[in-house]
Design goal:
single chain, 203 residues, alpha/beta, Rossmann fold, six-stranded mixed β-sheet, 51% helix, 18% strand, globular, binds adenosine monophosphate
Length: 203
């Protein structure tokens, strides 16, 4: 168990980074099924908001355009979600590893996260072939009816936003924590690489 300077427990955390369509949600869900891991996707957290509430409308407006949600809103909602997960026993901070998918997205979010999370590993789901990712998103748009996957213009804007933020975001963490995995490989191979990376970083 690790504490910060205010004697608060720091959550052992794995970050999943990657461009839209790189499989953060899929691999995050798979990890979340392993005992001792708790998966949280901030995108999923936003999609659960009541779209008729003031907050829900504000968040949706950003998501529909492929823009990021404001850092303060993300951090506030994330903290509320974590409190609830701990109160209900879904996340046990002394025992479990938190798997964050899609958070942090900016250098400022990464900075905010440090007061609460001890990052043990960063999995960067990498793919040089953007057209492959776009094809995956097109499929997901039909299967999951996600508004931000529906238009190719919005999808391309989300790549621009990702490319703009990723280097500064990664630079907030020790480089030795970063494991790049090529997501154009067969899924079973990705699973093997992911398991091996986490096994060595979480020891
Ligand atoms: P995702 O499900 O991770 O693809 O996220 C979908 C959308 O939710 C993004 O395009 C953003 O609009 C918003 N979003 C998710 N996570 C964050 C975050 N950490 N910071 C800002 N916006 C976010």
């Amino acid at each position: 168990m690790t504490m910060n300077s205010n004697e608060k427990v720091l959550y052992n955390t794995v970050l999943l980074f990657g461009a839209p369509g790189s499989g953060k949600g899929t691999w995050g869900k798979i990890l979340g099924m392993i005992p001792g891991f708790y998966h949280l996707s901030t995108g999923e957290m936003f999609r659960m908001l009541d779209t008729e509430s003031e907050l829900g409308m504000k968040v949706m407006e950003n998501m529909r355009k492929g823009e990021l949600v404001e850092d303060n809103i993300v951090f506030d909602l994330w903290q509320r979600h974590m409190s609830n997960a701990m109160l209900t026993g879904r996340f046990r901070p002394h025992k479990d590893t938190l798997v964050l998918d899609g958070f942090p997205r900016t250098a400022r979010q990464a900075e905010m996260l440090k007061s609460t999370a001890l990052v043990k590993a960063i999995i960067l789901l990498d793919c040089a072939d953007r057209e492959l990712l776009i094809a995956r998103l097109r499929k997901r748009a039909v299967l999951e009816l996600r508004a931000d996957d529906a238009s190719e213009q919005i999808v391309r804007h989300r790549f621009t936003v990702y490319d703009r933020e990723i280097q500064n975001n990664l630079a907030q963490f020790p480089q030795g924590l970063i494991e790049r995995i090529d997501v154009s490989a067969p899924p079973i191979h990705i699973l093997a690489l992911l398991s091996s990376a986490l096994d060595s970083h979480l020891k």
